[in-house]
Every structure is written in C-alpha cells, then in structure tokens.
Specification:
With 120 residues, the chain is mainly β. It is 0% helix and 57% strand. Strands 2, 4, 5, 6, 9, 10 and 11 form a seven-stranded mixed β-sheet that branches. It has a four-stranded antiparallel β-sheet with strand order 1-3-8-7, with no helix packed on it.
Length: 120
C-alpha cells in the first residue's frame, strides 16, 4: 500500500512564498500524473495544478503566473512553489498521484492535506 507524505504548509503574509512537497511511501512501479488540489472552508475541493511524468504542467486560472508545479522523478517527489500568495489562497492543500503498483495496476492516491494560511 502506498501513502503520500506532504510537507511545507504553514502561515505566511500576503505576498509571501511557500513550497509544498509530496512523495510516496511504499512499494510501487511507476508514478504517472501528479497533482495538487486545495479545499477552502465551505468550498469544494478544486484542482490547482497537474504535471505528467514527462513534465508537462497545467494550472488553474486563479494560480497561473504565481504557482509552479515541478517534479523530481529520481526522488519521486512533486513540488508546488507558491509565490505572491493571497488571502484567498488559504486552504488545505492535497497531493494527488496516479501510481502503478508492483503488478502494474493503476491506482489513485491522496495525501492527508497540509494547511496553508495567508494573512492579509
């Protein structure tokens, strides 16, 4: 069984920066697409950014130009660099990954979530 371990959340002032990290723990064959989602209080979970195993990235319009998703395939780690943070970026951020298991079965996994709070 694979678990996704996240780190890097915290409290930051508006205009500041944070970097989130996420890596799987456990046995697997290969990681396909990785992504970050977020959920603000009282709102639905929304997609923030995705990145393929080839490095192609896509972003929600609300974060384009401010957030950068990247991955280190050697470390099986995905990052989310968040710059020019705004109070409306406050949310729990979740890592998501589609991972091929040892038998080449594809499953979707979620991290436990990390809180990002941006003060005005």
């Amino acid at each position: 069984q694979v678990q996704l371990e996240e780190s890097g959340g915290g409290l930051v002032q508006a205009g500041g920066s944070l970097r989130l990290s996420c890596a799987p723990i456990g046995s697997f064959f290969e990681i396909d697409t990785m992504a970050w989602y977020r959920q603000a209080p009282g709102k639905q979970r929304e997609l923030v950014a995705t990145i393929t195993n080839g490095g192609a990235a896509n972003y929600a319009d609300s974060v384009k130009g401010r957030f950068t998703i990247s991955r280190d395939n050697a470390k099986s780690t995905v990052y989310l660099r968040m710059d020019s943070l705004k109070p409306e970026d406050t949310a729990v951020y979740y890592c998501n990954a589609n991972i091929y298991g040892p038998g080449y079965e594809l499953d979707e996994y979620w991290g436990q979530g990390t809180q990002v709070t941006v003060s005005s």
